[in-house]
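User: Hey, my collaborator sent me this sequence without any context and asked if I could get a structure. I don't really work with proteins. Can you help?
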Amino acid sequence: MVRAIGNNSDSSVEGEHGFTPTGATKMLPLVRRIVADLVELERSIAAQREQLQGVDSLAGTSTQHSYQEELRDIRASLAQDESRLQLCMEELTALGVKPHHPIDGGVDFPATINRRPVYLCWNLGEDSVHHIHELDQASTKRKQLDPTAFK
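Assistant: No problem. I've predicted the 3D structure and written it out in structure-token form, which is a compact way to encode the shape of the chain:
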């Protein structure tokens, strides 16, 4: 794991009061790769579940020998993808980052502004961390970060 990042003495990364926009942005190369994997795995898992439901809905197919091998392969692939997805989630958590649920390509970085805990919010495709939302708000309610909030 990459937990050493969280123990860095650079106060811009993660400290007693969480992340700063600069520190969170520094982590984006790694976070971006993990989140991209999460999104792809989530899509793959959904497609495999849909495929299984389709085969299972056909009367008698799950007991036919010709389908059993295919079902076994799909279930094995699904289990492998679910395991990889869990590892990605654990890796983000170890970094101090909170993935959005359901998985939408976004993550939150815990932070504190004026002694108030908040989330710095980032979505896949963005170059830097420049949005914020309250702890009790959905990430869809995020707002542009005031650049002077962390100075």
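In plain terms: Strands lie at 14-15, 18-19, 98-99, 106-113, 116-123, 131-134, 143-144. You can pass these tokens on to your collaborator as they are.
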